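Researcher: I need the complex structure. Ligand is zinc ion. Inputs:
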Amino acid sequence: MTEKKSTPQEEELYPRAFIQSLPKSDLHVHLDGSLRLETLIELAKEQNLELPSYTVEGLKELVFKPSYANLGEYLYGFHFLTGVLQDPKSLERAAYEFAWDNINEGVCYVEPRFAPQLHINDKQTMEDVLTAVNHGLVQAKHERNNMSAVVDGSQPPFEYGIIACAMRHFEPTFSEYYRRLYEVHQHSNKKEIHAIASLELARGITKIRDQLGIPIVGFDLAGEEAGYPAEHHQAAFTHVHRHFLKKTVHAGEAFGPESIFQAITDIHADRIGHGYYLFDASAVQDPIITNRERYVQDLAAYIADRRITVEVCLTSNMQTNPRIKELRNHQFRLMRAHKISTTICTANRTVSNTTMTDELYKAANVFALGRRELKNIVIYGFKRSFFRGSYLEKREYVRQVIDHYERAEEEFFGNFEPKQ
Ligand SMILES: [Zn+2]
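Model: Output:
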């Protein structure tokens, strides 16, 4: 792993080693977007799939770049990542390595998300896909939680919950499953086909969770926002809502505040992925809304009051919105000023070339978070998780995490406050 340095104008309030030592969560992380590049190369060779390069350096130069020109360029690499994950063995390996990459940098709670329908084909059903991913995760969890550091209580145990992503929009070329769906429903329009796919996924995952005991804890809506509103997926979200799955929705990533409003009102989002354009009154499009500033303030107040958590992905936002230019200009500043519940996440470890330690290090230092604020943000990541157990078990786990956090703080700072 390459060591990342802060830019000279940023004063380092919190050393990287301190951030690394903290117990961390990651509530917004795409499994496919986090596949190790070494594994991508190995799997592509085994499966005779073509890649633009067969070295890590070459792939970083051509596909998985440090910065991207636009969202399209950012998304380009996913085609290769999902391409090699079309059988149970590859999926299991990806999930296992993903879990260990997290554990190795102090992430003890993670909610990997992915779209099962991108992996369904002749060789594997939705059930096979989720079983394979769960096998990889559960194996890593057992290995980790049997290590002496966890057994003797010096590190918190590793836990996870899976989030299944429905797609706002897809084409027949996206996967074998989608191709067939378009074929079967050739007389339906796109909007109807998108809704059918989401409902099939919602029904499938609740059944798989209940019958196989796989910890699927959440449902997500991902993909292009413009022209593909959340309301098309209402039936699916109503189904998961009735089956006690939690809901998170990608909204306000590349579209205005109305997309966030729809996520909350039409499909009852418990958390918002990105929410970057929450405060952008100029992006409000509905002509009925005459006072756009007021609309944005009301929306922000509602989100803050209801404790709807925004999954903030700093690096990913910088990469998909190059016009932000400097991280200090990121809307995280305004979210904090409005006391919105936020949690820091990676989005894609490989595509964004980042880790939870990197993201938290940037958030803490660039935004000069106070010690209490940093702690609140980290702990909120656990409190607002879609933890699989009972509420009492969740509280017990969060309590353990807080104890570990305070120990890590004590070890690093003793009784001294970091410079402000
Ligand atoms: Zn995402």
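Model: Summary of the prediction. Residues 202 and 239 are 7 Å apart (CA to CA).
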